[in-house]
Design a protein that fits this description.
It contains seven helices and five strands; from the N terminus they run αααααβαββαββ. It is α+β, with helices and mostly antiparallel strands. The protein has three domains: 71 residues, no CATH class; 62 residues; 118 residues, Histidine kinase-like ATPase, C-terminal domain (Heat Shock Protein 90, 2-Layer Sandwich), CATH 3.30.565.10.
């Protein structure tokens, strides 16, 4: 019975302990079994039984460790897929913006100039022509001017910036994240229409979610957008995991701080509810 419960325990502890701690437990359990058999039950030193006892523990540890690795790999694949879909969505909106601007420029610089030249030539021709050719040239002149006005209206419409749907991008990101439930409270703000700001916010969310999955036992992550007393705009990300002591930030967090600082904002992390704030000033 002791063997069964001890093997079950090491299978569970594998998901929460480091490999060194797991090996220490297996050694402790095996030595305990050996000493109990020798001094309590007054048996000869049961070396073979102790080795079998340790072997069962080692087998249970290897299987559980393999399961943990597979779960981690699956989570990383799902997270990478969610990040890829979110980046693809933002890139698609960016490309759509650029295509609209390029089309507007081509219509204005090419078609608009040619229509203007045509209108000038038709105007000269209609003034010098005689009937019935003059009336036909007048109709052509009027039609060309109307076409030019439509082109100008179309160019103005295309040059109007297409709004970025950052909420849809973040929803695509959090929809495929494994293990944790993520809530998004999105409030529209003019700064979110900037492609550089939207890209920075996406990267901040991706890094924070990744850190939660790697370093926290959290089951809930909250992403909130809203105004701030000391800044024009604020995004707050926090989870319900165990608060860890503040340490030197890694390359990921330092990179985020640099991204936010380039846009005139700041990134602040606290141990209270594992909270991160990104503010734009």
């Amino acid at each position: 019975v002791y063997l069964i419960y001890s093997v079950m325990l090491i299978a569970i502890l594998t998901f929460y302990l480091s490999p060194v701690q797991s090996y220490c437990y297996m050694l402790f359990a095996s030595m305990t079994y050996l000493l109990v058999q020798k001094f309590y039950w007054q048996h000869p030193w049961p070396w073979v039984e102790a080795m079998l006892f340790a072997s069962f523990h080692l087998f249970s540890y290897v299987v559980s460790h393999r399961m943990q690795q597979e779960r981690t790999a699956k989570e990383q694949a799902q997270l990478a897929n969610s990040q890829l879909l979110a980046t693809q969505s933002l890139l698609g909106q960016s490309v759509s913006r650029q295509e609209r601007l390029l089309l507007a420029r081509e219509l204005h610089d090419d078609v608009g100039h040619q229509l203007t030249s045509l209108i000038v030539n038709l105007d000269v021709a209609r003034r010098t022509a005689q009937e019935p050719l003059k009336s036909q040239l007048q109709q052509s002149y009027t039609l060309a001017r109307e076409t030019l006005e439509k082109i100008r209206t179309l160019v103005s419409d295309k040059r109007t910036e297409q709004s970025l749907d950052l909420e849809a991008v973040l929803t695509e990101l959090i929809h495929h994240v494994p293990r944790v439930h993520i809530t998004l409270q999105f409030n529209a703000h003019p700064v979110l229409q900037s492609l550089s700001h939207a890209h920075c916010i996406l990267r901040v969310c991706q890094e924070c979610i990744t850190n939660t999955l790697k370093h926290s036992n959290a089951t809930q992550v909250n992403i909130e957008f809203g105004p701030s007393i000391n800044a024009e705009f604020q995004m707050k990300i926090y989870d319900n995991g165990t608060a860890a002591p503040l340490s030197e930030p890694g390359n990921g967090l330092r990179g985020l701080q640099e991204r936010v600082a380039e846009l005139g904002g700041n990134l602040i992390g606290t141990t209270h509810q594992r909270l991160y704030r990104a503010s734009s000033v």
